[in-house]
Design a protein that fits this description.
Strand content: 5-15%
Strand order of the largest sheet: 5-2-6
Distance between the termini: 68 Å
Radius of gyration: 32 Å
Number of helices: 25
Largest sheet: 3 strands, antiparallel
CATH topology of the largest domain: A middle domain of Talin 1
Shape: elongated
Helix content: 55-70%
CATH architecture of the largest domain: Up-down Bundle
Number of domains: 2
Structural class: mainly alpha
Number of strands: 15
Length: 722
């Protein structure tokens, strides 16, 4: 490797950037042939020529290397991951942090390798077993599980025929009380038929060396073990209770996530240890330096808890999404079976429906990323445009349909509040939170101000277009007040009025139908057109704005073939099923939100801008935080900006188009609070992002402004008519 020189500009691109080119250049300089142009394409000079060692880029003209200065090289394990990384930097594409392919085992850290390792590895020095996680296991599971084994052992001894299993349960009672630093080993039986017939034999002890067996060995070949009477007694009286207990421990520990080692321990005990002949199970307590030399180790556990299990994935799916998937089934069954609310109330069903939206959003996001990474640009663009906003649109449309059927305009106001909350949250809260969390690890973070400027310009355009009908109605509409009082008791004095609004239906709705509605339709056509122009600008004519070059990081001979978690067809099926479940959960949420809106003392504005707006965006927030921790703030910012732009340029025009075919109470006229909050948020965001660098203080400013706006919505009165 070339000598590393400190970064003179203070711009750090994280551990995956910058160093790749140096390795390529060092290799290229030792290889014969004219390959300097390749090295120049991959190299990104980071120091002045006077202070850096000569590189391959310096061997060429300044005109050739001018493009190298603005390029950022990202590495990928395979072509599919390279496509996913490239899609992350494309405007309008869903940003996805997790891998869509299986990572090579040798590329993973030791911490991650430990998460996926089986509990059959004996370490020479495991350290002290007295840890907080182990004590937690003792308090939650160990004491009653050990007591259950003692009771089962007593039952087996009473049956006399099950005495061997009683002795095994007695030994396992001590093991499961504190299994740490102990090993369960399957004792090998001599293979020779003569030894079986003789009825005597020797076997290596756990620590090595010949030791006489404590029992008379047998040949357990074929199905002889299952034909014994003691086995039948065990399977009828002992095993079912223990298997049920281990199943309960396994499910509970898995749901707690940090105790997944306990879940693995219980699963292996129920599936292997308890189904072995008792003569072949040996339990030993290891010293710090003892290592079994022979025999198969079935269980060996040192720690009951591991805080890094939040990274654990099953078939590429994060463990949190796996654990929340049964919640979707519970929500659907409870919502549609218990329609009269005999078992639970509307508040519980509404909460379950909202929580179910989170894992479904995750599955939709991963399916979109998988399909886009394995397809060409056109297919990826269509999938992202079609399903990118399906989560929010599903809820909005079902709410508008329910409001239209009931003749309740509160649903339309809640939808407007949710739209505004998504816009404000993605402009202020998402990038602000990413700046704060990323700033804890990195003192200063830089991002591509040019690409952020494109999103900012589209945000200005979209906000101006969305609120143009609102401003028009306030200029030309008639102010109508519900109740007025003369403060000075003078007919010409001052009046105090309440519940004032601009009436657009005066004179049989002439102003609305002749002026406001055509303006709404015009805006709804222009905004998607501007979005398409932005896509063409960033993805076709000005791709250099993003300064991204995706390159395979492995040298020749070290390429890894892509093993995708989800194939395209599997991802498509999951995408469609998740969309159907999302529609059902959204229908349940809107079905049971009416009592909450009616009986709650909290403003409907606050419910819309917080719960309904930000809960579906939680997977995106997690992705943004992960990007920020890796010093890739550009993607964290683009996540929020992309969602905000899609709200104004895609979701709102689609809702307007929907009202044409299905008349609802939704009109593109927002309250003053929504207008002021949205415009102030966009202006503040553009001011913060002007210089292309930020720190945790600027992120704190954005988050604090967001919470101030939430306080305003919290204390604001509910919309008129609700």
């Amino acid at each position: 490797d070339a000598p590393k020189v400190p970064d003179s500009r203070g711009d750090s691109d994280g551990p995956r950037r910058g160093s790749l080119c140096d390795r390529h250049c060092a290799a290229i300089n030792n290889v014969q042939g004219d390959v300097g142009e390749l090295g120049c394409h991959l190299h990104r000079p980071r120091v002045p020529p006077a202070t850096s060692t000569p590189s391959c880029c310096q061997q060429h003209s300044e005109e050739v290397c001018e493009s190298c200065v603005v390029k950022t090289t990202l590495t990928a394990e395979n072509a599919v991951e390279a496509n996913k990384l490239s899609n992350n930097y494309k405007f309008g594409f869903k940003k996805w942090k997790s891998h869509v392919t299986a990572r090579p085992w040798e590329d993973r850290s030791e911490i991650v390798k430990e998460l996926y390792s089986d509990l059959n590895i004996v370490r020479g020095s495991g350290g002290s077993t007295l840890t907080c996680g182990n004590v937690l296991y003792l308090l939650l599971f160990g004491w009653w599980l050990s007591l259950l084994y003692v009771l089962v052992a007593a039952v087996m001894f009473i049956t006399i025929m099950g005495a061997p299993y009683g002795r095994l349960c007695w030994d396992l009672a001590g093991y499961f009380l504190w299994p740490f630093g102990k090993v369960i080993q399957r004792v090998e039986v001599p293979k020779s038929h003569q030894a079986c017939e003789a009825g005597v034999g020797e076997s290596s002890a756990l620590l090595g060396g010949p030791t006489a067996l404590r029992w008379r060995p047998r040949c357990w070949v074929g199905t002889g073990y299952w034909h014994r009477a003691s086995t039948a007694v065990w399977l009828c009286l002992g095993y079912p209770a223990l298997a049920l207990a281990h199943g309960l421990v396994c499910v509970t520990a898995w749901l707690l996530i940090v105790l997944i080692p306990v879940a693995k321990l219980s699963a292996r005990a129920a599936s292997r240890v308890l189904l072995l002949p008792p003569e072949r199970v040996l339990i030993r307590c290891l010293r710090m330096t003892e290592v079994p030399l022979e025999g198969e180790v079935i269980l060996c556990c040192y720690r009951a808890a591991n805080p890094y299990y939040y990274k654990y994935a099953v078939d590429g799916i994060n463990v949190f999404a796996v654990n929340l998937l049964p919640l979707v089934l519970v929500t659907l069954v409870l919502g549609y079976v218990d329609s009269p609310n005999h078992l639970t109330g509307s508040a519980v069903k509404f909460t379950l429906a909202l929580l179910s939206i989170m894992p479904l959003s995750y599955y939709i996001g991963m399916a979109i990323a998988s399909i886009s990474a394995q397809s060409n640009f056109a297919v990826g663009a269509v999938v992202n445009a079609t399903f990118g906003s399906i989560t929010e649109l599903t809820f909005y449309i079902t709410a508008l349909i329910k409001g239209s059927r009931e003749g309740n305009r509160c649903y339309a106001e809640v939808v407007k509040s949710a739209l505004t909350g998504t816009l404000v949250g993605c402009v202020l809260f998402v990038p602000g939170l990413c700046m704060v969390i990323g700033g804890i690890r990195h003192q200063e973070q830089r991002f591509n101000s040019r690409s952020a400027g494109v999103s900012s310009a589209l945000l200005f355009l979209s906000v101006g277009g969305v609120f143009a009908p609102t401003l028009f109605s306030k200029v030309y509409g008639k102010l109508v007040c519900g109740e007025c009082h003369n403060v000075t008791q003078n007919p010409l004095g001052h009046y105090l009025c309440h519940n004032c609004h601009f009436d657009l239906m005066d004179n049989n709705g002439t102003l609305y139908y002749s002026h406001v509605q055509p303006l709404v339709y015009t805006v709804s056509i222009l905004l998607p057109a501007a979005y398409l122009i932005g896509l063409f600008f960033t993805l076709k004519t000005h791709t250099h704005i993003y300064d991204i070059h995706i390159s395979d990081c492995h040298m020749p001979g070290h390429h890894h073939s892509a093993v995708v978690h989800w194939s395209r067809w599997r991802a498509l099926v999951i995408l469609l099923l998740s969309t159907l479940c999302m529609s059902a959960c959204a229908d349940l949420a809107t079905e049971h939100i009416s009592p909450i809106l009616t009986n709650s003392t909290i403003s409907q504005y606050f419910i819309g801008v917080t719960v309904l707006a930000m809960v579906p965006e939680l997977p995106e927030i997690v992705n943004g935080i992960q990007f920020a921790l890796q010093n890739n703030l550009s993607l964290s910012i683009e996540i929020g900006n992309c969602i905000a732009v899609q709200v104004c340029m895609l979701q709102i025009p689609i809702l307007v188009l929907f009202t044409i075919f299905y008349p609802t109470n939704f009109t593109l006229v927002f309250s003053d609070l929504h207008v002021y909050a949205s415009m102030f948020s966009v202006v503040l965001m553009n001011y913060i992002f002007m210089d292309g660098k930020c720190d945790y203080f600027q992120g704190t400013v954005l988050v604090m402004v967001y919470f101030i706006l939430l306080a305003v919505y919290f204390f604001a009165p509910s919309p008129s008519g609700c």
